[in-house]
Every structure is written in C-alpha cells, then in structure tokens.
Automatic annotation (TrEMBL), chain A:
Gene3D superfamilies found in the cross-reference section: MetI-like
PANTHER family: DIPEPTIDE TRANSPORT SYSTEM PERMEASE PROTEIN DPPB-RELATED (PTHR43163)
Listed name of the protein: ABC transporter permease
GO cellular component, one term: plasma membrane
Family named by the database record: Belongs to the binding-protein-dependent transport system permease family.
Originating species: Manganibacter manganicus
Principal localisation: membrane
Amino acid sequence: MHRYKFVLYRPIQFLPVLFGISIVTFVLVRLIPGDPARVLLGTRATPTAIANIRSQYGLDEPMWLQYFYFVKNLFHGEMGKSILYKIDVLKLILTRIEPTLVLVLTSVTLSVLIAVFMAALAARNHGRFADHAVRVVSTAGIGFPPFWLGLMLIILFSVNLDLLPVSGYGRTLGDKVAHLILPSLTIALSLSTVLTRSLRAAMVEGLRSDIATAARARGMPERVVFWRHVFPNSMVPTINLLAINIGWLIGGTVVIESVFAIPGIGQLLVRAIFSRDYMVVQGVAMVLACATVLINLIADIVTVAADPRVKL
Amino acid sequence: MIGATILLVFVLAALLAPYISPYDPVTQNTDLRLQGPSWAHLFGTDNFGRDVFSRVIWGLRVDLQIAILGVVFPFIIGTLVGTVAGFFGGLVDAILMRLIDVILAFPFLVLVLSIIAILGPGLTSFYIAMALVGWVSYARLIRAQVLVLKNSDYAVAAVSLGFSRARIMFRHLLPNAVAGSVVFSMSDAVIVLLNGAAISYLGLGVQPPIAEWGIMVAEGQPFITTAWWITLFPGLSIVVLAFGFSLFGDALGDVLGVKE
C-alpha cells in the first residue's frame, strides 16, 4: 500500500498551483477597466446591490485585502452572482455540470477504443498497407477542426441517414444518449489521432521486446502474445498522454457544446463571454482549472495501479 | 516535400489573392443566393450570394496570419524566458517554473477565452491571449536544452574567457538550443490554426464580413441541410493547411535531427 502514499501528500503539492489559479482568476477580472462593482454587476445594477458587493468583496480596500476577501468568499462556496441568471455562480455551474461530465467521459472512452483498434491494426501489420494508412489518417486527423468535423458528422448521420438528432440535449436517458453520440464521436475522433500515434509506437516496440519473444518461444499464438503481453504494457504511456491532453479535451468540449447546443459548462462560458457576465467567466475558469488538477491526480493513481513498477 | 509544397502553394495563393480570386469576397449578390458548385462558382455561393471559392482564398490570408503570428509571439517570449530561467537557475528559475505550472493547470482554450472575455472579441485580443498563454511550452523546451548545454565544454570555455552572460546566452547557448522549438512550432501552428478558427467560429475572433475559414463554417451552419458547400470547403481548407504544417514539421525534424 505504501506505493499509494502519494495520494495523501500529492494534494499538498497542489496547493501552490491552486493558490496560483486563484491569483490568476482574481487578477483577470480586475484587469477590466472601470469600476469593478459595475463590471461585476452590469450597467443596470441598483445602488444597494453595488454597495453590497463593495462590502462583500472589499472593493474599496487595497488589492491584497480584496484578494483576502475573494479567497474568504471562495471558502464559503461563494463565487459571486451571475448577472444574467441572477443565481450564485457555483450553483449555476453545478446545474450545468452533468452534460459536460458525461460528454468528457464518453469521449475519452470512445477515443481509447478507437485508438486501440487503429493502433493494433497498424502495429500487427507493421510496415504494410494498413500501417501506412493508419499513419496517414492519424497525421491528417490532427488537423481536422473539431467544430467542422462535428458539422460533417451531422450532415452524414442526421441529415443524410436521419439516424441521430441534429443538436440539443434531451430529457430522458435514452434521449440524452442519442443526443450525445455525435458530439462524443467528434471529440473522440480528434483525440484518438494523438493517442493512436503513441499507442502504435508503444505496440511496435512491445512486439519486438523480450517479453514478446519469450512468449512466442513458449509457443503462444501471436494473437495471445499481442493482447495478453504487448497490449497491457502499451496502455501505460497512453494514460499519461491522456492526462497531458486533458486540458485540450476540456477546451474541445467548450467548442463542441456550442456546435451541438449542449447546455453544459462550455456553452455557459461562451454565453457568459458574450453577455459580459464576468463572475461566470471567472467561476468557470477556476472550476475547470481545478478539475484539470484533479484529473491529473486521478491519472497518477491509475498509472500506479496499472504498472507495479511505477513509484511516485 | 509534400508538406513544403502545400505550404508554398498556400503562401503564394495568399499573396496573390487579389489576382486569383474570381470574385470579390464581400460583395453581396442576392440573385445568386445558395447556388451549388458550378464552373462559374467552383465552391458554390453562400446565403448572401458571395462566391465561396473567392472567400476561401481571401480567408487563407487571415488564417495563415493566425497560424504564423499566433506562433511567433509565444515563440519569442518563451525562448527568452526559457533561456533566462535555464541559464540563471535558482530563484528566477523557481518562480518562472511555478508560473508555468499555474498556466498549464488551466485548460489552454479556457484561459485564452477568459482573456478574450476581458479584452473583448477580435483578432488582436486573440494574439495577445496567445502570447500570454502559449509561451509556456517554448519556455519549457528551451529551458531543458539550456540546462544541458550550459555544462557543455564550449559554454564552460566561453565563461572562462570572460564573455558576458548575455553573449553566452544568446550567441552560444540559444542557437544550439532552438532546433527543438523550431520543429515544435510547426505542430504548434496546427493547434494555433485550429484554435484561432474555433474562436472565430464561436464569434469571438475575426468579425464579419471579413472572410475567414472558422467564421465561414459558422455562417454556413444554418444551411447545412440544404447548402453543404458553404461549410465543407472552408473546413477542408483548414485540414489541408494543417496537414501541410504537420508534414513540413516532420520533415524539418528529420533534417535537424530532432525527435519529438
């Protein structure tokens, strides 16, 4: 169990980063020219509301004291009120978290499935046509703009084949699943290009390794050598690559939610930017940054669980 | 070779846009609304009757600029910061590295969008946001190289000859450290191009009626059921340009002996 000790002290190592995240988001909103109270409340705010926010955030106090108020409010779960929705930002984000979370999870699962299939196809046919085809597809695929790819999938599956809904999110479970297939597939296809390249390289190397040779010498069929010995080892670097790309994945979700009109955090962020709802922008940026830090911790745990040789 | 050819053709097309585009990219013609591809209009026309082919060529100018300027500013800042951090080490290095950790904790696009939210939509805001966020990758790459190189024989020799720190950093270390960043900048150009187009697609970058590929995709979206050509061609152009950068970057890596 001592290999998992890092789960306890790693969050302490994250403290400086979390401190930095709070500073960046704090500074961001205060860089906007003009009276911060008006910036945060919008132009049609009542004098009482302005007085309230002044005292809650200490907006007449020096900067360092304002930051102190900001953090104090954070610890009470207060990120301010949205101008547009008139409710607390954290509550607002929580109501929007489900579609985003589900979208991220299904996209990651799908992209790993696609990447494993493509990489296995390439590695087991190393140097042959399938290998070259996969390499060309994954190199070109990196340059596919996800927002455009999503629209092309809509044309194919929703317009021409009439199989899936064009956009939106649905109310019942089955309806939600139907609405999430195309957006997940869009993100998964984009993400899988990066994964495929690394997975293929790891698999090609694995097939040449002593482990594989030893397994073949014991008379194991090539299929078993590959899936039982080569494949599990090739997954470890892929988990790290997934963790590195998690920020990219979340950014992609923001755009894809807008393409498919999914009411998640990404769409909330884009709408907030248009309506100058700065409290929401600040809150979403902070929540997504913290989520990225948390996912990296989870990736570390999975890596340690997957590979007994890894020590953190 | 293929990559270099694609890039060369695109750069020439961007430079010659006024001469090779058959129609004006912004002039509207209501008689020609939503016409499919034909010999007169290779890529069809959009809902304002504008020639999509001409708009794709003019859009190339903007998107090429996005891919280049969106990489150049982060490259310069990151290279300077990385060289200084790697060379001086100690407190300077520690502070800069923590700053990089914090910036990397944010999802890239989310931080860029937040900065654009503060500065207001537009291409200038996009470049500023890219410069503020994008430098971290270059700084890390250069710093790692400088850390190794500053203990090399020629660097030690330069120190013992009494050369100034600036001279050692920028005349001796930097030229040898920069190859990896140059190769990385090609794959970075792909990401910057996609991000720039995505931000314009969201309506936060280039503003209409300027022709730009991301915005053209957004403008075609309401018509995808009837007029697919408005969205197909600008997106396809992004794919080809990005492919050009990717291939050119791979080839450059082979020539310079840099592994990714």
